[in-house]
Amino acid sequence: MSPLPLFSFFLCFLLLLSPAISTNSEGNALHSLRSRLSDPTSVLQSWDPTLVNPCTWFHVTCDSNNHVIRLDLGNSNISGTLGPELGQLPHLQYLELYRNEIRGKIPKELGNLNDLVGMDLYDNRFEGEIPKSFSKLKSLRFLRLNNNNLTGSIPRELTTLSKLKVFDVSDNDLCGTIPVDGPFAMFSMESFENNKRLNGPELKGLVPCDFGC
């Protein structure tokens, strides 16, 4: 067999494998997440890393191309931390992790999820700052981070998220002033309440007063 037909054969073979390789990488990312979590009620029992893709796992939804588009683990009695591997789910549209005992910092790599529409991390034990990388989530419509232990100021970069319709950071320990530009012009004060060091809304056109944050 001449080198050219042989090369063409292997190229076609790799193209046929590419969806499986992609979805398997997503399965690896989810399995890495599982290794970080404590799961006393075995809600993640079906997460078998030996399968070709994670589309048969409970609490995981895939599209017709076997790409992970939803992760539904809200109110699942899980604890632990999140890691950068969640940023390796490029087709994810909904990340539902609310009402658990997840602690630690919110990974900045979540800002790589370009297709993300909804992120619900409320009622956990997250700490640290809201990642500025969230400003890259141009499809984001719902962002709920309330009832955590988040600190720092609200990133002004989030005012560029033109599709953002729901934003809730109430019951944290945020500081500084409340943005008023972009979508923040329409959010009610209830979205920011019970942050004792958070002031505002800031006066439009003035420099944000986030000193000492």
Number of extended strands? 13
Q: What general form does the structure show?
A: globular
Radius of gyration: 20 Å
In whole angstroms, the N-to-C terminal distance is: 69 Å
- Largest sheet, strands/sense/barrel: 7 strands, mixed
Strand % is 15-25%
Total of DSSP H or I helical runs spanning 4+ residues: 1
Q: Class by helix and strand content?
A: alpha/beta
State the low-pLDDT regions, or none. Answer: 6-22
How would you classify the quaternary structure?
single chain
**Global mean pLDDT:** 89
Q: What is the element string, with H for helices and E for strands?
A: HEEEEEEEEEEEEE
Strand order of the largest sheet: 1-4-6-8-10-12-13
The helical percent reads 10-25%
Spell out the key features of this protein:
1 helix, single chain, about 210 residues, alpha/beta, 6-stranded mixed sheet, 13 strands, 7-stranded mixed sheet
